[in-house]
Amino acid sequence: IDPVQLFDPQTNTISNLVGPAGDILAKALAIFDSSLWLLNTTEGGTRRPQRVRYCDQGDITEWILGTAGFRDLLEGAEQLMCGRLLGSYLILYRERGIHRVSVSDSQNLRFDIDHMIPDNGVTSIDAVIHFEKNRHFIWGRDNFYLYDGGFELAPIGDPITKLVFEPFFEDGTAGDVMFAAEDPSQAHRHHLVYFEQLNEILCVFQSIETDDLEYALCWRFSENQWFTRKFEGRPVRGADSANPFIHIAWDDLIGTWDELVGSWNDLVGPVGTTFPIFASSVGGTNDTPTFQFDVDLTQDIDVDFTMVVETKDFSEYPFHARTDWFDIRIGGTNP
User: Fold this and answer.
1) According to the model, what pLDDT value does residue 292 have?
2) Which of 49, 184, 292, 335 is least surrounded by Cβ atoms within 10 Å, i.e. has the fewest?
3) What pTM does this model have?
């Protein structure tokens, strides 16, 4: 694992972040009160799984002087997993325990860190996602919850807990023959995807039947209903949503460049509805790392996601192209 790294736009270089004891490794990062927070650190080769370290306010290179500092959360031995903003708070999640960080009114402390939930937590850095109305959706240790920053968690996954958290009944028989329970040894791979336009949150996990992230539970929060999903042969490693537009192609332009009304990369739309785009891995059913999931079909059928990149010919003076960062991965039968 690489140390935390900084990008310098002046020199266009990347270098390791230097802390009080040299290079710092961190399990997760967060931004709060104009400071970068490092969670669950390794400093000078020594692991600090309960430590949070923050830089000087507004200065990502200063970790000793000014308002920089650290806190060790010693209320338990469990490690910190992630941090998420919630209104005016930063919520810190550990394997067992949830803490709320606020800016302190004390002259001796920069932050107040309160231990809000002592008996529950998360097992993945991606098991928390910001939800509507300043709430977090949490993949907890024994259920799915909504959290508003207080002293209680609101369980919402009771109808499907046996599908995920209780795979076997007391007599040892399988909890549900239609859906495979999660593999507890792979709980660190849990991740959540929030599709706001579809009113859905997708909970992706590896089951005891597979060796990759091919199963998911979908919570449609507008109706408070749960659905099961299986992505056969195409593990879901990341996701986002897209809205189809009609692009203006160069062949559709009329007149000279100077006569063009509007931007050269104008879009007409949107057309259709928002749909999920999933990032998989090469080696699946179709060897396609990115695919579109059709939520309107009765079966879980995926289709390849395609796109077209067009640009003006900048080879003649006085036109110049500036590309601070431009990555393209292209495949197909027609080069």
Assistant:
1) 67
2) 335
3) 0.76
